Amino acid sequence: MNGPDLVCIGRTSVDLYAEQDGSKLEDVQSFRKYVGGSATNIAVGTARLGVKSAMITRVGDEQMGRFVRKTLAENGVDVSRVRPDPEKLTPYVLLAVRAIEDFPRLFAYGDAADLAIEESDVDPDFVASSRALLVTGTPLSRPDARAASVKAIGSARDAGTKVVFDLDYRPVFWGVASHEQGGEMFVASERVTEVYRSVLPDCDLVVGTEEEVRIAGGSTDTREALRSVRGLSGATIVLKVGAMGAIVFPGEIPENLEDGVRVPGFPVEVFNSVGAGDAFMSGFLSGWLREEPLEECLRLGNACGAIVVSRHGCSPAMPTTEELEYFLGLEEKPRRLRDDAWLDHLHRATTRNDPRELRILAVDHRWQLEEAVDELGVDRGRLRELKVLLGRAFRRVAEEDEAAGVLIDDVYGDEALAELTGSGVWISRAVEVAKSRPVEFVGGPNPAATLRAWPEEHVVKCNLYMHPDDDQETREIQEARVIQLYDACLANDRRLLLEVQASPGTTYDGESAARLLGRFYEIGVRPEWWKIPPNPDPAVWARIGDVVREHDPYCAGLLVLGQAMEEERLAESFAAAASEPLCRGFAIGRSIYGEPGRRWLAGETDDEGLVSSVAERYGRMNALWQNRNARPAREGAAR
């Protein structure tokens, strides 16, 4: 079968989560933007656990619709059936993070795209090609969306595809609760019960909270509601019971509900309860689709729920297989999961989409260019024009090279940065004050506040002039500031590229860089990328690689910097780096643009001459890197 494992049909939205924990919704000052909606959360959650998931829904044909599609695709969800609707908007949900019994939600829906799906959106062959179809309760509140869900169910039944029903009862969507009561979980309604009961006979798996089972069964007594559901459906029924986990009823409903199939939940501190049910469903389905025993499905579901309630947001909080294995393998599971630094790092590392290789044009130089224009007698304001042209030279190459990236500053590169941002290219932005030692940060001493204003796509780059043998005072200041920067990156969900260069008056021997990286790992700093000075000795790269693998096997990679070296010497370093698998590219600037840039500043070439020359030299450097294995490393320098 070549189709997806799981097709999810239903709600998708943009979730705006309050950043001020505990604040009333009306008092919130700022929000974090995520993709949400129960069916969408489950599609993301299962995809992160290795399930081939797909979505059937609609989004607005606008910026937020593109955000939803892009995010789903980045998480491995098939979006071929996510249809842009030119007449409707992607809906919003505003959420305040408060105590579990008082979690305000405001559904800014109106005439929303996701609930405008209709029968024509459902391809029976696509549904039939899957192993399971997930339908959720909310779309049943709209006639056209209900018809689409029923058509999907029929297609699944005809093909022998399993049908999973997530009861997902939100009274506000059925008109039995006010907008202000968006967080209300139960309001009795005969109409809702009737609709739910019409779906139950075709289901293989039914999952819901006590409130949801009560609405489906038409009784405020949970056991009676379960018996009512059982009277209509032979499906396996999963009753979610909050922090205690869930109870499964594969057959008749017992007198004592505790006699159902169950495993212990994981007692963790609840920070955000909203995504718990979707996380549980994702974990449970990942086992159920593999035909694991119900006990194992429950264990996976409970673990996913425990992890997600410790985090901000729903879909972005969903764990990956690596996180799940780590959590389940802990002999003593911490109650406050938010404090587990390795679990947090695993989440960042296994959910990001870092390129496998990067060939970066570095144009973040400041003091070096200031010296050049002062020597030429040129106004420093010309450096802004220079960097705009260098950015355009980069774009010329990047249009044909997916591994191209650019490193730039916002001092002289602010206009170039504005042109590049949003274009889809890989961008890293300098955060250090040029030539500062101990390192200082642009924007002032609070990097968290500075990074908050940066676009999310900008990878934070920090250059450090450091040596393992620096005096203690300087070393301690630099380490403290790097920890501060790393914490700021974590708080603002930013990636970090850390560059190390020898302190003035020192050089790196064969062990220096490896020792320095090891020290950073000791103090808890794990950047996504390292930028390392060139070295023609493969053994040096091997030692660096070994340190990184020991402390962070999820590191995106090492990049070779240029230090204005000539191509012949860089070729030697590239050849040496070729033996280390973690060396995944370079970040080189003046070796590429230095000579043509100087000629342009001196008035010896025009704008097109500069752009063409830099693009040609950048392309040549790319070819040099790509052919690095063909060049022998320095003789006698073996791993």
Automatic annotation (TrEMBL):
The protein's matches in PROSITE patterns, at most eight in alphabetical order, are given as:
PFKB_KINASES_1 (PS00583), PFKB_KINASES_2 (PS00584)
Q: Which keywords annotate this record?
A: ATP-binding, Kinase, Nucleotide-binding, Transferase
InterPro entries, per this entry? Answer: Aldolase_TIM, Carboh/pur_kinase_PfkB_CS, DUF2090, Myo_inos_IolC, Myo_inos_IolC-like_sf, PfkB_Carbo_kinase, PfkB_dom, Ribokinase-like
The catalytic activity of this protein is classed by the Enzyme Commission as 2.7.1.92
Question: Which Pfam families does this chain map to?
Answer: DUF2090, PfkB
Top-rank taxon of the source lineage equals: Bacteria
Which residue ranges does the record assign to the Carbohydrate kinase PfkB domain? Answer: 5-320
Q: Which Gene3D superfamilies match?
A: 3.40.1190.20, Aldolase class I (3.20.20.70), putative 5-dehydro-2- deoxygluconokinase (2.20.150.10)
Which molecular function GO terms apply here? Answer: 5-dehydro-2-deoxygluconokinase activity; ATP binding
Domain DUF2090: start-end pairs: 323-628
**PANTHER family from the UniProt entry:** 5-DEHYDRO-2-DEOXYGLUCONOKINASE, HEXOKINASE FAMILY MEMBER
Query: Which family, according to UniProt?
Result: Belongs to the carbohydrate kinase PfkB family.
Q: NCBIfam families under this entry?
A: myo_inos_iolC_N
Q: Which protein is depicted?
A: 5-keto-2-deoxygluconokinase / uncharacterized domain
